[in-house]
Design a protein that fits this description.
146 residues, alpha+beta, 14% strand
Length: 146
C-alpha cells in the first residue's frame, strides 16, 4: 500500500550578502605627496596644501574619498592624482585613471567633479582633464598594494 506521505518542504538557505565594503566602495582620489608631488621647491607656484584641502572639502560634500599616499612613481609628471573607480564603476569596466601635472585649481576642481559624478566606468572624464592623463608606471599595482 502506498504511503500518503508528502515530501518535506525545504527552507531556502538565506542569501549570502556581498561584502558591504565592496558594494559601497566609492570613487577614490589617491593624491601623491611623496618625494616630488606636493614639494614647494619643485613647483613653488602651487598651493599644495590648499589643493589637498579643497579635494577633502569636496569629498566631504560629495560621494567620494580622498587618500594621500607616498610616491606613486612618475615624479617627472608631478603632482599626480589617481582616480580609482567605485565598485560600480569597476563593475562597469572602469580602471584607475592617472592624472599628471595636477597643479592648478581648474584641474583640481575637475578631478573632484568627475569623482563626485561617478568617476571611471560611470562617467567620461572632462576633456581638459583627459589631456592630463598619463600612463601608470610599471609596477604601479605593486606600489599601490593592488
Amino acid at each position: 500500500m502506498p504511503s500518503s506521505c508528502t515530501p518535506p518542504t525545504r527552507t531556502p538557505a538565506p542569501a549570502t550578502p556581498s561584502p558591504p565594503a565592496a558594494v559601497a566602495r566609492p570613487c577614490t582620489l589617491v593624491v601623491c605627496r611623496g618625494c616630488c608631488c606636493g614639494d614647494p621647491a619643485k613647483h613653488p607656484g602651487t598651493d599644495h596644501a590648499g589643493q589637498l584641502e579643497r579635494l577633502r572639502e569636496a569629498a566631504a560634500e560629495g560621494d567620494f574619498e580622498v587618500r594621500v599616499t607616498d610616491c606613486l612613481g612618475p615624479c617627472d609628471q608631478a603632482n599626480v592624482i589617481v582616480v580609482r573607480p567605485s565598485a560600480a564603476g569597476r563593475a562597469a569596466g572602469g580602471r584607475p585613471a592617472w592624472i599628471g601635472f595636477a597643479l592648478d585649481d581648474a584641474g583640481t576642481a575637475e578631478a573632484a567633479e568627475w569623482a563626485r559624478a561617478g568617476g571611471p566606468g560611470l562617467v567620461a572624464p572632462p576633456a581638459a582633464l583627459e589631456l592630463q592623463m598619463i600612463q601608470a608606471p610599471r609596477g604601479a599595482r605593486a606600489r599601490s598594494g593592488r
